[in-house]
Write a structure and sequence with these properties.
The chain is an alpha+beta fold and about 325 residues long. The protein has helices at about 10-20, 65-85, 130-145, 160, 170-175, 180-200, 240-245, 255-265, 280-295, 300-305, 305-325, and strands at about 35-40, 45-50, 50-60, 100, 110-115, 120, 155-160, 205-210, 220, 225, 235. The protein contains eleven helices and eleven strands.
C-alpha cells in the first residue's frame, strides 16, 4: 500500500470515502451521497440525503485531537442554540459529537457532522455594508464567548503558541520549511509578535475566538451573515479575529479595517489599545499561513503543487504591510 503522502488527492479521497462507510451510519447517513467539498486543513464532504444535506468533516492526523474537537463543538452548539450564527453540529444516534477514525492507510483521526448551511461565501470585493456586517458578526461572536460559561475540561488552542510561532520543537521545525529569504523577512515579525501577544495576556485582553474568520469562513445566508469552520477556535487577544478578517485584502489596515470596526462598535466596544498592533499582527498572520502551507505540502498534494506560488504571494503581501507600517 502506498504511503498517504505519496498519493494524489483523488486517491486520498477514494480511501477516505471507503473509511467513512463504517462511521457514517452512526449519524444515520449510511446511504448518503457524498460530494467532495475541500481537502485542506481537514477534508469535507457534503452528504445528500432525503432529509436534507449535512457537512461531513474528516480531521487530519497531527492537528486537533478528538477531545479538542469536542470542545470546539460544545461552543458551536451553544452558539447555534443562542444566536444561529454558527452551524448546528449533528450528534450520533448515541448522542456523540465526534467519532474516532482509525483506518490503515488513511491519515485521519476522527469525524464530525454538521447540518448544511445554505449560503454563499463572501466575495473578494466587499462593499462597505458587508464590511460593517462582518464587524457586527465578529462582535456578536465575541459577545457570546465573553458571556459563555466554559465547561470543565474544555481544550482549545492558545494562539500565542499556534499562530505566532512561540519557540518550541514543532514550531521551530516547521519554521525551517520556509525558504531562507522568507525567514529573513519574517524572523523579526515573529519575535515582535511573540512579545506583543504576551503583553496582551491579561484576562480583559483575551477571549475565545473563531481565529480563522476570513471571508471564506463567512456565509451570506437568508438570515444574514453566519460563521462556519470553527476548527481553529482558541484563546487569543480579541484583535486577532480582526486581523484575520482583513489580512488578505488590499490595504488591510486602512479604510476597510476602519469600516469593519464601525460595524463592530454597533454591538460591542473594542479594546482600542490593541489596534496599534494590527499591521504587525497582519504580517505575523501572513507568515503563519506561509509556514502552515509549507507544512501541509509535505503530505497534501493540493498544497505541494502550489506551495511556491502561495508563499510568494504571502511574502509580497506581508512586505506591503510592513512597508506601510514603517
Amino acid at each position: 500500500m502506498k504511503d498517504w503522502a505519496d498519493l494524489p488527492v483523488s486517491a486520498q479521497m477514494k480511501r477516505m470515502r471507503r473509511a467513512l462507510k463504517d462511521v457514517l451510519p452512526k449519524w444515520g447517513l449510511g446511504t448518503a451521497r457524498l460530494q467532495f467539498v475541500f481537502h485542506g486543513e481537514n477534508t469535507t464532504f457534503r452528504a445528500h440525503t432525503p432529509r436534507g444535506s449535512f457537512l461531513v468533516r474528516v480531521h487530519r492526523l497531527g492537528y486537533n485531537s478528538p477531545e479538542q474537537t469536542e470542545s470546539e463543538l460544545a461552543w458551536v452548539e451553544a452558539l447555534h442554540h443562542d444566536t444561529r450564527l454558527a452551524p448546528k453540529p449533528k450528534r450520533t444516534r448515541d448522542g456523540e459529537l465526534v467519532v474516532r477514525l482509525d483506518v490503515p492507510g488513511v491519515e485521519a483521526t476522527h469525524v464530525c457532522v454538521f447540518r448544511w448551511v445554505e449560503g454563499k461565501v463572501l466575495g473578494p470585493r466587499m462593499s462597505a455594508d458587508t464590511l460593517r456586517r462582518t464587524g457586527e458578526l465578529m462582535a456578536r461572536l465575541h459577545e457570546h464567548a465573553a458571556g459563555w460559561k466554559i465547561p470543565r475540561g474544555f481544550k482549545r488552542h492558545d494562539w500565542e503558541k499556534m499562530a505566532i510561532f512561540a519557540h518550541d520543537e514543532k514550531n521551530d521545525r516547521d519554521w525551517q520549511l520556509l525558504p531562507e529569504t522568507h525567514r529573513r523577512v519574517f524572523a523579526p515579525v515573529r519575535e515582535e509578535a511573540i512579545r506583543v501577544v504576551r503583553s496582551l495576556s491579561g484576562q480583559k485582553d483575551t477571549g475565545l475566538l473563531h481565529a480563522d474568520l476570513h471571508r471564506m469562513n463567512i456565509l451570506r445566508t437568508p438570515n444574514g451573515l453566519a460563521a462556519i469552520d470553527f476548527d481553529d477556535c482558541g484563546f487569543a487577544p480579541w484583535v486577532y479575529d480582526a486581523v484575520v478578517a482583513v489580512a488578505y485584502r488590499k490595504d488591510p489596515s486602512g479604510e476597510c479595517f476602519d469600516t469593519m470596526m464601525e460595524g463592530y462598535h454597533r454591538v460591542r466596544e473594542f479594546p482600542a489599545h490593541q489596534l496599534k498592533f494590527v499591521p504587525l499582527l497582519i504580517a505575523a498572520r501572513l507568515a503563519s499561513v506561509s509556514v502552515w502551507v509549507s507544512a501541509r505540502a509535505r503530505n497534501n498534494a493540493f498544497f505541494r503543487s502550489r506551495v511556491d506560488e502561495i508563499r510568494g504571494n504571502l511574502l509580497k503581501q506581508a512586505c506591503g504591510v510592513l512597508d506601510n507600517k514603517s
